[in-house]
Amino acid sequence: MDENSNLSLNFQKRLGSFNLTIDCVLSQKVTAFLGASGSGKTTLLNCISGTLTPDRGQILFGNETLYDSDSRINLAPEKRRIGYVFQEGHLFPHLTVKQNIRYGQPKTVQKNENYVSQILDILEISDLLERYPKQLSGGQRQRVAVARAINMQPSILLMDEPLASLDRGLKNRIIPYLYNIKQTYEIPILYVTHAISEVMALADEAYIISEGKITFNGEPHELLTTPSTLPIANIIGVENILSLPIANSDKEKGVTALEIGTQRLIIPYIENGTNNEVPIAIRAEDIIISLEDNLPISARNILKGTIDSVENQTLVSISVEQHLMTVKITPDACKQLQLCQGKEVYCVIKANAVNLLWSDS
Hints:
Blueprint lengths: L6 E9 L2 E9 L3 E5 L6 H9 L6 E6 L2 E5 L4 E2 L7 E4 L11 H6 L4 H4 L2 H11 L14 H14 L4 E5 L7 H17 L4 E5 L2 H7 L2 E6 L2 E6 L13 H5 L3 E11 L4 E6 L2 E6 L8 E6 L4 E4 L10 E11 L3 E6 L2 E6 L2 H7 L6 E6 L5 E2 L5
Helix pairs in contact: 4-5, 5-6
């Protein structure tokens, strides 16, 4: 993106006891802000869109001043040419899909049917035009909301956790549509989420925001490898984040083996070359602890490790080939297995419990 598309943010906003302090320059095609609920993500977007006024500071888009407290400049939301996609879509229930998409479009778009057709084709919603929002699935509603925002020909596109209300299957189907939007249009996108998988799939640059302050900035893959980002596990609800090299892939059997030291972690088949590293995430509750390795079960992965620590008889940290794995169990299970520091155990993990965190589509 050229400098005229840079979004410069240097402002503060207090809401009750909460204080948001932002100072950064966004220059990439898609910038993601990752944070927990209440961290300030939506407040950030509302200040940029103009629906909320900062207490002081500046918001610049290229050479245009959107807000400047010293110069007393505060452009109205409708003059900022900003597209906004909300978590729930916020479609007008009394309008058809076609009418929703055309709502607020500039006159230049009204005369350019090819522009509209391209949006409909990319998002695959041409056959939905005469339906009303109540006749759409959650994924369809979000695609229509994206189409409406793009059809406004915005200078910036803000996306406020657009996939948060969808189940995992729908999210996986919607992400490629968003990636195609990114590839097709020269519109800078600011994407806020609490899901690291969305950041890895879509973003060119990532920020972590916590309690109203930026605590990390870098490329998405650095979220997995930078020690300063370890608290991200609490943000995204995934305790185990690893980046492991591929040992081999077998398309016929439908499996890929990742190296975790001298052991192997089997996951569903992926197209990738040997030795390429794959970022993965495993929830602590998706790992079972066993004292034996010859269990008659369907789980493909039984990894040998040593207990590093036990917290409150419910959170067990296990060292597997120098990788720490966190496992959640019940106090009864902890007592029954007599788990303690230094004890050798086995981590049982189903292949489909391993979530891929891709840096592209």
